[in-house]
Amino acid sequence: xxxxxxxxxxxxxxxxxxxxxxxxxxxxxxxxxxxxxxxxxxxxxxxxxxxxxxxxxxxxxxxxxxxxxxxxxxxxxxxxxxxxxxxxxxxxxxxxxxxxxxxxxxxxxxxxxxxxxxxxxxxxxxxxxxxxxxxxxxxxxxxxxxxxxxxxxxxxxxxxxxxxxxxxxxxxxxxxxxxxxxxxxxxxxxxxxxxxxxxxxxxxxxxxxxxxxxxxxxxxxxxxxxxxxxxxxxxxxxxxxxxxxxxxxxxxxxxxxxxxxxxxxxxxxxxxxxxxxxxxxxxxxx
Length: 286
Ligand SMILES: [Zn+2]
Ligand SMILES: [Zn+2]
Known about the structure:
Elements: E1 7-9, H1 19-26, E2 32-34, H2 49-61, E3 67-70, H3 82-102, E4 106-109, H4 119-136, E5 142-146, H5 159-167, E6 174-180, H6 181-186, H7 194-207, E7 213-218, E8 220-221, E9 232-233, H8 241-249, E10 259-261, H9 270-284
Parallel strand pairs: 1-10, 2-3, 3-4, 4-5, 5-6, 6-7, 7-10
Antiparallel strand pairs: 8-9
The chain binds zinc ion (2 copies).
């Protein structure tokens, strides 16, 4: 991949966590996002020491950096159910342990959902949970808060709410924001035209500051702007479209931010095709 920008895709860890690096390398990726374990189970298996060594070795051999771990989908630190909240705090801290072990820079977290309760109460509860996590220990790995799609119950789809979470927590725990283009779009931050992008960037600047964005999840959207629908689409085939995505990732403030694709993987050619489109989007603007 002839491109200075760090581009990667969410990559499978099937067969062992280090194999993800080989898969990423074969696709020409220079950054990676993985799950630390099956994201639909609470059981987190420890990683064999030999795997940890191999992961670090291959990572430097293939020049893959940063490494992002996407936290389990089961985690809901905003939950009003005490048992679920406790389990979520424990699992999140275990994810951070694994991230530290393999030297991942960031763990990406959706701050959870309110499941019918008042949003502000849930937001405060998410902050309290993260405060608890911050007291367990100090990890080298930091958490990135991901903006969510705006579906009912979401507590982190508005930049203002994300800024409240970040402002309430220590810097040694929270490293910044992972901005998902599909989620932003369906949460009402249009990025399909230059004028809309200007407005969205202004909102980001106003609430979170642009320097807080450490990763772009580059996904097109099956749903319309403001629809709240969390359905990712192949680059250029969704409602945002090539022009909007191209303008967005090449915005002067985002030029050097790593990109991870979470586009559908239905057939083997899907990842290479989406990566090729992103490379064209970047090269056209240089
Ligand atoms: Zn996510
Ligand atoms: Zn995402």
